[in-house]
Amino acid sequence: MQDRLVEKEILHGTNDDYEILNLIGRGGMGAVYRARRTGDNSIWAVKEMRPLPNTPADEVAENRKLFAQEVELLRRLDHPNLLRLADEFENNGRPTMVIEFVPGQTLEARIREANAPLLEQQVIGYGIQLCRVLHYLHSLQPPVIYRDLKPPNIMITPEGVVKLIDFGVARTYKKRKAKDTIAMGSAGYAPPEQYGKGQTDARSDIYALGATLLHLLTNQPPVPLQPPQPGYIRKFNPSVDPATEQIIITAMALDRGQRYQTGAEMEQALHSRLDTPFVDPTERTVVPPAVSPAAATPAAPAPASPAPAQAAAGGIACGNCGYVNKAKARFCANCGTPLGAPPTARLLATSPRGTWEVKLEKMPCNIGRRDPRQNHYPAVDLAEHDRGIASRNHATIQRDGDNYTLTDLGSTNGTMINGVNIPANVPQRLHQGDRIKVGEVELEFRWS
Known about the structure:
Layout: E1 10-12, E2 17-26, E3 30-37, E4 43-49, H1 57-76, E5 85-91, E6 94-100, E7 105-106, H2 107-114, H3 120-139, E8 144-145, E9 154-156, E10 162-164, E11 171-172, H4 202-218, H5 232-236, H6 242-251, H7 263-271, H8 308-312, E12 316-317, E13 324-325, E14 345-351, E15 354-359, E16 365-368, E17 380-381, E18 395-400, E19 403-408, E20 416-417, E21 420-421, E22 428-429, E23 435-438, E24 441-447
Parallel strand pairs: 16-17
Antiparallel strand pairs: 1-2, 2-3, 3-4, 4-6, 5-6, 7-9, 8-11, 9-10, 12-13, 14-15, 14-24, 16-18, 18-19, 19-22, 20-21, 20-23, 23-24
Helix pairs in contact: 3-4, 3-7, 4-6
C-alpha cells in the first residue's frame, strides 16, 4: 500500500477537484503536496493527515483532534501574513485541507543556507510583520495564541512577505483557566508558562518572537528558559545595536509581566530601530480571493461579457469569465486567466558615466563586469561604470511567467532594492519603479 499521494492523482474536494503535482514535505503524522485546482488551474497546497505505520492509536487520535482544530482556526482567520483555507474534506478516511501555496523558503532554511547571522535591518522587518500578525491573532474574540512561533513555521515569500504556516498547536485563550490542557511548544522558543506552569496568553507568543529574532541575529538556537544577557547577541553579531538587543531581552523576560504586553507595543519598539521607514510588503502583493469552504453551492454563471457601464469605468474584462478587473490588472482576480499580452520589462541604468537602457528580452539577464579572458560578457556590463565595486557575477534577473525576480549571486559588496540590502541567493520579486543599486550604478525596473 502506498505511503503517500502520487503525481497526477485526483482528489475530490468539497468545492473542487485537485491534481497532485509533487510532494513538498513529509512528517510523522502527515504530508503536504503541491496541487493544481482543476477548476481554474491555480496552485494550492494539500495537507493530509497520514500517520506513519505503527503509530500508537492515542497519538493518531490526538493528531486528528489537532488537525480539526487547525481547520477550524484557519476558517475564521483573514490576514495577509496567514494562510488562506480553500477547502477541507476526507480522502479515503484521511482528514485533508487545501490551503494557500506559499513560494519561498522557511526562515529555518534561510538560516541554514546563510550559515551566518542575518542582517539586523532585515530581521527587524520580519519582526514587525510578525508583531502585526500576532497582534491580529491576540485581538480576536476569543484570542488565538499561536504557541509555536519558530523559524521552521515561518515562510518568507520572494516578495519578503512573512507567512505563518502551521496552526497545529495554536489554541484559543480561555478566561479563568489556570493552565493549558496540553503543554506544547518547542524547547528554546517556549516560555516558562508553556511548560505546564500556567496558561499561555499573548505574552507567551511575544517570548517566542524574541527567541526567534535572537536565532536570526546570532545563527544560534535559543537556550531553553535562558533569556539573553546584555552583550550575548552582540558577541555573535557585533553589528547589532545594543538597543535592538535590549528589545529581545525584554521580549524574553521569564516574568511575563516584564515582557512587551502586546504585539503592537513590541512593533513600536522595533520601528524605532529601523534606518528607513518600514514598507509593508503585503501592501505590494495582490492576492486573489480564496474559495470559502462554506461556498459549496455553485454560483450563478458569470456573464460572457461585461455590462456597458462596467466597461466604461476603464476596467479590463476577462474573456474567460467576464469579470471586470482593475485597469492595470495582468491576471483575472476571479479565475486567474492572463489578461492580454505580458508587458515588456527593461532597466533604465544611471551611473556617473551616463544613462542607458537594457531590454529584458533574454533570460536570465546577468549583471556584473565583463572578463574577456574567460569570454564572460554579462547583459548588464558595469565594467566602465562603477570603478570595480560590482562583482563579475554580481546578480541575475529571471522571469517566471509574468513576474521578474532579482537574485544577488553572493557578491562581495551586495545589492540593494529601494535602499535595502537583499540577502544573497534569495530571489526578490521586482515591481514597477523598483530601484536596484549595484555600486555606483542605479537600475530602475520598468514595465511598459
